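## tool: complex_structure
## caller: assistant
## args:
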Amino acid sequence: MITSQKALDIILDNTIDFGIEEIPFLESLGSVLKEDVKADRDFPPFNRVSMDGIAISYEAFAKGQIDFKIENIQAAGSEQLTLKEHTNCIEVMTGAVLPQHTDTVIPYELVTIENGVVTIDTKTVNDGQNIHQQGKDRKANDVLVKKNKIISAAEIGVLATVGKSMVKVAKQPSVLIISTGDELVEVEEQPTAYQIRKSNVYTLVSLLERLNIKAETRHITDDKSVLKQKINQFLIDYDVLLFSGAVSKGKFDFLPEVLNELGVEKNFHKVKQRPGKPFWFGCKASLGMSEQNEKKCKSTVVFAFPGNPVSTFVGCVKYFYPWYKKSVDLVFENYQKAILAEDFTFKPDLTYFLQVKLENKKGLLIAVPIMGNGSGDLANLANADAFLELPSDQTEFKTGEAFPLIRYR
Amino acid sequence: MITSQKALDIILDNTIDFGIEEIPFLESLGSVLKEDVKADRDFPPFNRVSMDGIAISYEAFAKGQIDFKIENIQAAGSEQLTLKEHTNCIEVMTGAVLPQHTDTVIPYELVTIENGVVTIDTKTVNDGQNIHQQGKDRKANDVLVKKNKIISAAEIGVLATVGKSMVKVAKQPSVLIISTGDELVEVEEQPTAYQIRKSNVYTLVSLLERLNIKAETRHITDDKSVLKQKINQFLIDYDVLLFSGAVSKGKFDFLPEVLNELGVEKNFHKVKQRPGKPFWFGCKASLGMSEQNEKKCKSTVVFAFPGNPVSTFVGCVKYFYPWYKKSVDLVFENYQKAILAEDFTFKPDLTYFLQVKLENKKGLLIAVPIMGNGSGDLANLANADAFLELPSDQTEFKTGEAFPLIRYR
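## result:
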């Protein structure tokens, strides 16, 4: 049995390059940017008026002039006007280009206007004030956003500004989530006493949706030959197979055997952790045609999580998430940590994923343990916000100690 | 001019009830739950085997018996079997119902099987072990998830488990985002020297998408009569109008005047903050028919943000976000805080929204100032993660002090 860290290392050695695609920028929110976004021109692109008011030549004011005849109005979006008489002024609007032969803007609040003449009511006017100079923020060809980050609303704004109506982003993997287990019925069905409804596949679909991955789902009955035949095809059609269940020691836990027979190389089975110990991970370098990928040769990665709800959940956020992020070259965030709110003891030589509720106290992230009833207790996940990852080489975890945090909301 | 806190108070006094709708549970990720989710039966719904192995009657083992003949196999999803001979055993799989007349499960790892007979290889067997007792996690009718929280993957799993294939969630407001300003051109257009591309509307669309709101967008030219005619119709058709620009003192900043003429009551104009001072907010109690809402009488709320990119951005996350959350009765998270990483000075009597990059150091949220070039510097938003809200009654902000945090990624 390997450690959780070793398992993660192996998984991160088996990433896949899903490729790059170009999509409309407004659909790219949440995608991973795959090109540096550069300024197409200076920002601002011209000497931009930054207050509504009047534009003058500072020289005239410096010589003691306080009354300026209004020559014209410079609106935002209009071609640049020229001040004809340098002792006159032009009314200017925020966002407008600064008129030629003017260099200073005085806001309306500090002037009086009467009969087409402006009187400046203040003594403090600075040469060049209230002008956002061309190129002050960024120069043409400056990199505004580096690639390999998730596109947020801020990046959408930048893309719009520089005219990137189409943007290169990471292609998403094709993922199939497969449930097994004859005790499972559909959500809309009424289970008999000994059946339960499918839930793990939908939890996984939702966890992947947070990564902008649209996963498909399938159910296979606990029949070895059916399992084998179907998985054989799935290995050709998908980049990633996520299984929930059928990896333990049960009579009908055919999965490791079937995957082996189909040529999927086992990287490990069982990890020193709770919950989620019987986790199986393997890869297949496939030569099959993949319609989804338009790649002739590809490999498929198989994450087979134990079927208990909390085990599946931990498996996805602890292993699949980092695997995906490395696959798309996402700049890795520092490992987030949170501070344990109360003493906790866990004796087995296993990494323990403690369910916690998060509180922010004056900038400290506090993790309050939410004890449920173990790996079967799905409802407890809804009461918590995150897992605190307690290392296997420690048994007493003290109030105030910081541990790695895996948030899921 | 009012304070930022007063502005927020006024806004939160003008929330709208958008109503409730029922949608397929798998589409509800990110929505606000509008019903308590109850357990439809006990969890687990039966005495559930939690290890693959054999089920016995503990009494037989207690009497010294270690060899048990296998009578049958109890698979997950199969009807409950009955142990006929109480000195025999039944093989049981994880997830299966515990067979009648058995009460204890011994995992395969601790037994040897030969010729249909199991020999128990351990002395430590506890009465009732490895059984997840019916109702241990939750009892039928227990509330598993309370309403008024955002549905995450964990809640999706709970909804599936209890058979809520349709779930009640908050209806979303109909929102129109309107840009004004004749200097603006479309993203795919090549602007002339004195024009710029539209970006604020797309930033706002993306910020609203994070709340699962699908907003529409429109552009109106700087023409008072056109503006008036169009806005008149928008006030009938939408719950919320978000404007960017045309609220300042410019000659073509018709918006406050037009809104006033259309009967939108001004709650305030201008807030003691930087950036985003000329923010205008008002409401109209309308009697018009709203097709979107199927409500005969409704009110429309108008957020008119200043047109600078950072001003618009701050306005949305500082005011619209809390307004939306209160409107849908979202349980308010505690005001998050972060710790300032370096000394900062800001003298004006204004709330200052400082752009910061966040770091997590051993559970402390550290805010590192990212100084841009003011409210026009959109690219700086892409370098930062959040705003730190520095109060107006303070001018020196010291390293290590915690201040309210508004994250946008």
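## assistant note: DSSP finds eight helices and 28 strands in chain B. The CA atoms of residues 158 and 379 of chain B lie 41 Å apart. Handing back to user.
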